[in-house]
Amino acid sequence: MFQDTSTPGSVPPAADALAPGIGGNSNAQALQAMGFDHLIKNFDAVGWIVFVTLLIFSVLSIYFIVLNLIRNTAIRGRMNNVMRTFWETPSAQEAIRFMEEQPKSEPFSKIALDCASAAAHHQRHEGSRLVEALNRSEFIDRALRQAVARESGRLEGGLTVLATVGSTGPFVGLLGTVWGIYHALIRIGATGDASMSAVAGPVGEALIMTAFGLFVAIPAVLAYNFFVRSNRVILARFDEFAHDLHDFFATGSRVEAGAAPAAPRTAGQAAPAARK
User: Fold this and answer.
1) Could you tell me if residue 195 is left (phi over 0), alpha (psi between -120 and 50 degrees) or otherwise beta?
2) Mean per-residue pLDDT for 8-37?
């Protein structure tokens, strides 16, 4: 009753669908063709903007991490020696000369030199309207505040960039992922192909952007927290050193808790040697 209408050598449709390995090999080959290279080649304008933004974030993050690491390491390695040498030098002129020989990036010497310069300036103008307006202690205190604020600002350079990269990097990567998935769904709807190769490949490629965003943001966040903690220690030493300098140049001797008066030198000795 039933005639075989199949042509000789043909495979029935059911058998073709169930043929082992054919569909799997097709999907595997399609997925192997997907990847980061394929993703870049298929970027549109938004994809390129997201990718270039993350790349810039990555470069800036690495730059400021290395810069702050070198700077903080140098400052923490020198600060104890700089302060100890300043207080242990018998002559105030020699101590000021030692501070002037320090590198430009060394903040403690700059704070001490600004303080000495302010004390010398105030001493040179004794009897003038400047002295009438501000006494010696107030004038030195103002110079110290300005010096500490300046060096603190330099110390925190780059932390804003690290905070920005750490907070916005994942969202920029997520924007790239959402945009990529949107275009993948548009292509699937246009072709009507909902196979594994049509869905998993583009979606997997889009997720690469989220991974890239996290890869950029995580080191920035860790570095930011590390440098904030490191800077807090240095800023505390700034304040400590500034208070000691104020006592020395305003009263003529350094006030040390639990210690006998040490230096025979006076603030008047330091003033003539200060930079003008």
Assistant:
1) beta
2) 49
The token pair that represents 67 in the structure block: 């810069």
Which of these ranges, 24-28, 125-129, 176-180, has the smallest mean pLDDT?
24-28
The answer for residues whose C-beta is within 8 angstroms of residue 264's C-beta and 6 or more apart is 90
> What are the structure tokens assigned to 86, written together?
């300043």
Tokens of 31: 């997925």
- Cα–Cα dist 276/272, whole Å: 9
Q: What is the pLDDT of residue 64?
A: 95
d(CA 182, CA 188): 10
Cα–Cα distance list, 242 to 113, 121, 126, 232, 254 (Å): 11, 18, 23, 15, 11
